[in-house]
Amino acid sequence: MAEKFYLTTPLYYVNDVPHIGHAYTTVAADVLARYKRMMGFDVHFLTGTDEHGQKIWHAAQEKKEDTQKFVDRMAEGFKAAWKTLGISHDDFIRTSEKRHETVVQKVFHKLLQQGDVYKGEYEGWYCVPCESFWSEGELKEDVDGRLLCPDCGRETEVLKEESYFFKLSKYEKDLLKHIEANPDFIQPISRKNEIVQFIKQGLKDLSITRTAFPWGIGVPDDPKHVVYVWFDALINYISALDYLNDGKLFKKFWPADVHLMGKEIVRFHAVTWPCMLMALGVKLPKKVFGHGWWTVEGKKMSKSKGNVVDPLALSSEFGVDAVRYFLMREVAFGDDGNFSMQSFIKRYNADLANDLGNLLNRTLNMIEKYFKGQIPERPDKLDGAKDQLVGAAEGGASGLVDQNMNNLAFSKALDNIWEKLVKPANKYIETNAPWKLAKESKAKELESVMYVLSLVLKETAVLLSPFMPETAGKMWQQLGLQGPLSQKTEVAGVKVAKGEPLFPRIQK
Predict the structure, then answer these.
(1) pTM beyond 0.85
(2) Given this model, what pLDDT does residue 125 score?
């Protein structure tokens, strides 16, 4: 029976269209899901949309649109974007779906019955755009004396209303113990340190309902209240597995192996969500990973600045796989990154056009020229540089890639592929000069060189397939290989089928 692997993106808020930040998280999750499937895991990959809350209600009102119709339309935009970017999710959940609403209401009722939820009155600072509560000490003050949200920098407002509260404070010590006992629970280490410091300042009970607007999941037996958007949305990770209903998927896939998200929402996932699960008596996820932010040309992305990068427009111009590659290669997953067209084009031309595309094109040209398009047989003896390259192509590179993939070090995994396979193979061509071997009628040496290059390209296609599925498929096809991409596939004697260059150089 295959080992399970359950991974999630956050639910994306449907007040806007998908941008490069959304794409970054989702492509990373897709790369990991594809890799784990390739390694034989039974994968369940969840993404979706967060459709409740005051901000959504206001956005629909501003457009004079029915709220449900508004979220339906916006959710379709995310689905279409993920289809374009080749996202292989197994489920797409929406918080306005009945299956989610049912579980949220059951969870609320269960926690209320056992005393972990109680009724009171909330008065405090609230950021509508972030749907976040803040203590006065956490807020920033501007020159006009306005108290601003520490996350988004916009003005907060005092909220006073009847509310139900979740006993977050009750689980403070248990959560700290869990983090100490499970050092990989929150990653990277910088996020973990921030969360530990936050918890040690003392957790306060969390207001988890609203009465000021009607758009949300109603509280059972108290319909003037709707469930707070974060309390509602976090439950998606188990509602999608049908928790508290028949729960077959829940029994199979929970706990989550990794929750992926941007660093700005780690606190909800590493504090609020684990405490909710502790109250429910449910195992905690194995890992919460908060990646960095993308700036654009060195500046923070914002609609007002007009510098929001559209991943779909970029994909339309340069290809989906080029965008996926850039996002995963340019910065270490966990660090902040900067997008610029200059860096994108440089990476595209150097890595994809010159290194990878050129390697495939030159190799296939020579196989056609010297061997009538048929990959030579494996030589009896391999030596020197050939041994090193064959070693990398027959497991050496994949071992390094596996280690980095398991650590979510996607950039390092791609670096392994380039440094162990792609670049050495290009150097190998220059060192061995097949054209000279042909001229000097050194047939056995020429056969050996072309076999080794074919072997390297096969392995490169396999290891690249989670990152660049379309490109890997084209490489497989041009190598003349049949069936699913596999390291076990034999290249010897195969008839190649050279096609168009993978990545035409960008002349800009």
Answers:
(1) yes
(2) 84
